């Protein structure tokens, strides 16, 4: 807990101290071809809305292609896409049956059908800003060949749906606007998000694209990029999506993320000394905190929470076995961690420009127990069925606001 809190704080400070990035300049020369991949499974309801949102992208359509990867058995999604009237620059690729049915496997199949020099990834419920592709292309063209990936900012278009949606919005705002940019600026390995990702195709193919068996293929690929000596850049272009705000679906989705992070840590720690040599001491230690410490903190959180009874004047059997100074130091660490979470949530929510009250940040600690349920589910599945992809349904809390999200600009800090 202490290490995770310190890392969040240091990363946030690095982000806030960094001078704002100047506007990207338009560069001369022909624009590159861009391929956007979207893996769809049982998305018949939201598929037409996805097509409308992607159609708002203002990149020249003769240089843009959208490849929609649909599982062979998913007739309903394929029919919905065909009935929506696909333009010439969008097409369906059928993913044949296989031993695993995961998003990364579908992306690998779709990659073989792409022609662009830049490969982008979106999710089914995404609403990207209209100028997003142009900004990404400008960012690549103004950087050196060491930049292999650009990660955009993820936000939500339904933050006021309920309390879980508010908590999810605060959590993501802190991660994408304060913590993750700091991770990149400190030279740590960037665990990528699953959408609004853009890669140089040659690098993606050099690394063998996505691991079809990893249920957080994005985080794993971010680590592999760093191990190969490439950089990931953070760009303040926003994609809005739907906050998963029902308790049981939230636990299912989060358990998949935690399981994938556990899997990623195990895979890359098969040879710790090799990993250390490839990325350096700072990035190696950061990897331990972001993956191992985070997983352990999630699983052992009930033990940590039990120490709060000391503040209420009760005794704790473990605290009684510790030197008095250490017990009070632990309590101080809990208070410090809570203060950091509240402060970062407040600052990030202000940067995001959402209209929900910032005082919701003080309820974050009532939200965190959900992650422990998800962590226990993730650990069990890691042992019993590690490659199972727990599907998240989309479009349930899609609103009229979402329809205009791709064209609306909000401050991103």
Can you tell me about this structure?
Helices cover 50% and strands 13% of the residues. The protein has 16 helices and eight strands. It has helices spanning 2-17, 47-55, 75-83, 103-111, 132-141, 163-185, 201-206, 217-227, 247-268, 272-279, 281-306, 317-320, 324-352, 364-367, 369-384, 400-403, and strands spanning 34-40, 64-71, 90-95, 118-122, 127-128, 147-156, 197-200, 231-241. Strands 3-2-1-4-7-6-8-5 form an eight-stranded mixed β-sheet, sandwiched between helices. α1 (2-17) crosses α6 (163-185). The model is unreliable at 400-413 (pLDDT under 50).
Distance between the termini: 27 Å
Can you say what the CATH homologous superfamily of one domain is?
Answer: Spore Coat Polysaccharide Biosynthesis Protein SpsA, Chain A
- Unreliable sequence segments: 400-413
Strand order of the biggest β-sheet:
3-2-1-4-7-6-8-5
Order of helices and strands: HEHEHEHEEHEHEHHEHHHHHHHH
Coarse shape: globular
Helix content: 40-55%
Overall CATH class of one domain: Alpha Beta
Any guess at the CATH architecture of one domain? Alpha-Beta Complex
- Total count of helical runs of at least 4 residues: 16
Measured by DSSP, the beta-strand proportion falls in: 5-15%
Average predicted confidence as pLDDT? 90
Which structural class do the helices and strands define? alpha/beta
Radius of gyration: 21 Å
Could you give a short account of the major beta sheet? 8 strands, mixed
* CATH fold naming of one domain: Spore Coat Polysaccharide Biosynthesis Protein SpsA, Chain A
Annotation, overall tally of beta strands: 8
């Amino acid at each position: 807990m202490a290490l995770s809190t310190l890392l969040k704080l240091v990363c946030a400070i690095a982000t806030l101290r960094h001078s704002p990035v100047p506007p990207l300049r338009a560069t001369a020369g022909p624009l590159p071809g861009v391929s956007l991949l979207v893996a769809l499974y049982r998305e018949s309801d939201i598929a037409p809305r996805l097509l409308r949102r992607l159609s708002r992208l203002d990149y020249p359509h003769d240089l843009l292609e959208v490849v929609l990867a649909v599982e062979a058995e998913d007739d309903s999604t394929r029919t919905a896409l065909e009935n929506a009237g696909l333009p010439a620059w969008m097409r369906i690729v059928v993913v044949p049956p296989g031993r695993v049915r995961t998003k990364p496997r579908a992306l690998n199949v779709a990659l073989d059908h792409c022609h662009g020099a830049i490969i982008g990834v979106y999710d089914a419920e995404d609403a990207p800003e209209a100028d997003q592709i142009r900004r990404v292309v400008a960012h690549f063209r103004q950087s050196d060949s060491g930049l292999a990936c650009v990660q955009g900012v993820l936000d939500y278009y339904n933050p006021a749906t309920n309390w879980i949606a508010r908590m999810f919005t605060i959590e993501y705002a802190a991660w994408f606007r304060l913590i993750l940019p700091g991770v990149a600026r400190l030279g740590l390995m960037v665990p990528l998000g699953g959408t609004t990702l853009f890669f140089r195709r040659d690098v993606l193919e050099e690394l063998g694209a996505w691991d079809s068996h990893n249920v957080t293929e994005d985080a794993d690929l971010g680590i592999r990029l760093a191990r190969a000596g490439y950089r990931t850049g953070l760009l303040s272009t926003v994609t809005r999506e739907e906050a998963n705000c029902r308790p049981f679906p939230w636990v299912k989705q989060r358990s998949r993320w935690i399981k994938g992070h556990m899997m990623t840590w195990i895979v890359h720690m098969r040879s710790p000394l090799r990993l250390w040599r490839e990325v350096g001491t700072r990035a190696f230690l950061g990897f331990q905190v972001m993956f191992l410490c985070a997983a352990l903190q999630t699983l052992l959180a009930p033990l940590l929470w039990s120490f709060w009874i000391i503040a209420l004047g009760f005794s704790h059997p473990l605290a009684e076995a510790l030197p008095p100074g250490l017990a009070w130091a632990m309590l101080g660490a809990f208070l410090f961690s809570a203060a950091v979470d509240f402060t970062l949530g407040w600052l990030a929510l202000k940067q995001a420009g959402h209209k929900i009250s910032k005082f919701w940040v003080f309820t974050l600690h009532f939200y965190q127990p959900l992650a422990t349920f998800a962590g226990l589910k993730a650990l069990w599945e890691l042992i019993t069925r590690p490659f199972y992809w727990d599907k998240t349904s989309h479009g349930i809390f899609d609103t009229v606001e979402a329809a205009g999200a791709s064209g609306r600009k909000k401050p991103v800090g």
